[in-house]
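Practice problem. Given the sequence and the SMILES for pyridoxal-5'-phosphate, write out the predicted structure.
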Amino acid sequence: MTVTPVQEQPPLQRTPLLRTSLHAGIVDPEMDSMRLLSETAMKFPEALSFSSGAPYDGNHDLANLSHYVERYLRHLRDQGVPEQRITRLLFQYGPVNGFIQDEVARMLRHDEGIEVSAESIMITHGFQEATLVALRGLFASPDDVLLSVSPAYVGIRGAARMLDIPVKGIVEGPNGLEPEAVAAAARAVRATGKRPRALYLVPDFSNPSGTVVPLEARQRLLEVAADEGLTILEDNPYGLFARDGEKMPTLKSLDTRGDVIYLGSFAKSAFPGARLGYLVADQEVTGEDGSRRTLAQELSKAKAMFSVGSSSLSQAAIGGILVENDYDLTSATRELAAVYQERLAASLDALAEHFPPERYAEHQVRWNVPRGGFFLTVEVGFEADLAAMERSARDFGVSWAPMSMFYLDGGGDRALRLGFSNLTPAAIREGIARLARFIESEAGA
Ligand SMILES: Cc1ncc(COP(=O)(O)O)c(C=O)c1O
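Answer key:
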């Protein structure tokens, strides 16, 4: 047999691709800030990390995954769903808006006092996809502007950036977003010829600041939204972790006009690896032919093009958690809420021990006192940027997040965020002792 020699190929001439030729959402260094933060923190694995908001993972047990999926399948069988349909539901492409909306509606009624039909709910890949879908649907013109609390969770700025939606930040006060500041921002946007279209906020234990909007301000925010023609995007991943008796009504439960879209996540109430969340949009949309559908149904066109549907396995696991707990995530997360409350208290006690208020002139450290959530903010007397965080992690063994990363229009240069959710009280005490040594050395420098 004769073997033909392989012809030598000329070297590949790849066309150079400049990063600057890509979409602004990819090019903008701000969009990379969370990755840089976690990479910097990960360079120092020995450091105690206050830099993320990862939930407590001490209860995670692999055996639970199959248990919850089985629990959901049993629930379907108990309802008389034929075996063949169950198999198809799990293995095939499923309905775009998901298949656990009934269970989520029952949970919302129980936990949040939100009364909506299953047709008003879309199951999504976490809060993040819910936001992308809601923004895509609402923002129809390049003149539409998103108003957002500032400092804000990076996911909202990123989602808006990816969709080329302009954002105007409204700096919050000690009690979160102030309604009159929202009204002023809406007027300011309108004065430039643009339209304030929606308002994003986290009324309960905001990320990064841990603030809670008081009840009166919630009612006033709804009035401002009605007056200014704003749709409120209410993001609520931490509301369940309030102290007993302190849980506030969500804006959605107070919304009588249909001005609120509620964005939910199972990342903190169940587990983030499921990547599951949901959107509640019960607004009625009238078509040109007079047809009427909920906004969640209308928005399924966006969801179909972003992700086709949400994972059936994740829906089954989360559905199983809801069924097993009788649609009562408040009770199901009581122990977890106590864990977070203990960690918050340990953080506040350690800060008070190391930075006595009577010696403020010396250390220049001040912090807020949230009543729940995963985060608190600390003001310091020096620039707390990523380079400072790296010095802190490398030389003192403690990492945190620069607050400036969360401000939309500048600010927070001398402040840091402490995320205490995934550190034990002992690690928190040690971490804050290390932070105190770092702060002392920066002050000396
Ligand atoms: C304010 C806020 N919203 C939403 C989320 C969760 O989003 P997802 O469901 O996409 O994990 C987080 C998590 O860090 C958050 O802090």
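Check your answer against the key. The chain has two domains: 20-59+334-444, 62-327.
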